[in-house]
Specification:
Layout: H1 2-15, E1 28-37, E2 42-52, E3 55-61, E4 72-75, E5 80-83, E6 85-90, H2 103-109, E7 112-117, H3 124-135, E8 143-150, H4 152-157, H5 163-173, E9 177-180, H6 186-199, E10 203-205, E11 208-209, E12 217-218, H7 220-226, E13 230-232, H8 254-262, H9 270-282, E14 286-288, H10 291-298, H11 300-306, H12 316-320, H13 328-350, H14 368-378, H15 383-389, H16 392-398, E15 415-418, E16 432-437, E17 440-442, H17 444-453
Parallel strand pairs: 1-4, 1-5, 6-7, 7-8, 8-9, 9-10, 10-13, 13-14
Antiparallel strand pairs: 1-2, 2-3, 5-15, 11-12, 15-16, 16-17
Helix pairs in contact: 1-3, 2-17, 5-6, 10-13, 14-15
Amino acid sequence: MALRLALASLLAFAASDAQRNVPSRGPLAIINVTVIDVVGGRRLADHTVVVRDARITSVGPAASITVPSGANVVDGRGKFLIPGLIDTHIHLATLPDRDSLRIPGLLLANGVTTVRDAGAGGYDQWLVALRGAVQRDSILAPRLYVSGMVSGRNITRYRMQDARALAKQLIAWGVDGLKIRDGLTMQGVRAVVEEGTRARLPVYGHTYNFANRERPDIYTRDAAEAGVQGTMHISGIPQTGSNVLPAPPNGDDWMAWWLYSTLRWIHADAAAERSLIDAMVTRGMWLEPTLITEDWIANADMYASTWQTRGLPGSFAQTHEGWPVYSGRDLEQFRAAFAREKDFVRRFHAAGGLITAGTDCMPSCGSGIADELRLLVEAGLSPAEALRAGTSDAARVLGWGDRLGRVEAGTLGDLVLLDGDPLADIRNSGRVRAVVSDGRYLDRATLDGLLTRGGAAPSSAR
């Protein structure tokens, strides 16, 4: 019943008259712009890009490209054009304003044109339905990749016999990938990988289990050897090896336990880390660090002081509720552990590991992608490498590398026009002037409307 009501709400939203004020799709030419070649890390000055029927049809020096008759011509002089940004970790169905579908608008307004929803217990079918609505042009929203959640809680929720049975059900519902989470044994993980392999779907997710606080199970290396294709959250995979951890906290102080789990990074074993990196890189296992979720705690004061000036929705206090707040020695130790996490990201990348940019919707959906790219640069990636983590490399991880993540003829029409050069300063990835979403040109005024109004249904179908 709850699912039927949620789907009815989704369809009613899509049909509402208030969501019709969005430009229709038509021929588009962005002229005299500097195109950022994210793969080569190059600036291609004075270029023209033509988009027709939701696909890039031509890219080249402005003097060599013919602008189609009747095209919407946008002068990109002094601007920089990048592929649409890809956030590989959001949670649409667990947010409080899920049924209002405001979040897709926030994502687009920040240049995010593709997302991987990392799953939501009990809302797997809702997400598949939402993906269908986006594909049918019923709702203006980023391209959606749906993760089916395989967890101990979902096994119980859906009354499944085991992880294998749940994986089969999620595949039957039509998810794009299988995300593993808490409550699984390694036997269960292997079963999920077997089912994913049969269905040609990737398996990825949390390669740790914190259900037992005293003996948290971290099985990233075993997951790599079992065929899991990616791990999410750098915070959950510290390799302590033979190092002895301090005694755990007494009692049920959740902030103390959170800190204890994080501080395992201070006690990480260098040899064990090198072994893990070798195993992951050898098997092609990608890393989605979501550094922003740690920065959100380590540097909460920075987010609080800039909340309003950055135009973030709601208030910092409301958004930060439920997250730990540390001070003094605790904060100093947390920041030291965070520095160790970023160092692991640097070494993983230097070894040839593939990194993708996901935010977990921190500090808010959409705005966090620029922060995550900044944090990847702080971790040791170049601006070009960080930009690839949020575009071409992210597209590869989703299995969509042949059609997304590059400004090239033949790829889909997802683009972001920036006011600043992201190769000079990665923070310019957040200076969004306009967005092309599936061939639709959304100017700054339209994006500002999405920031206040949220998602929208297009004025005409393809």
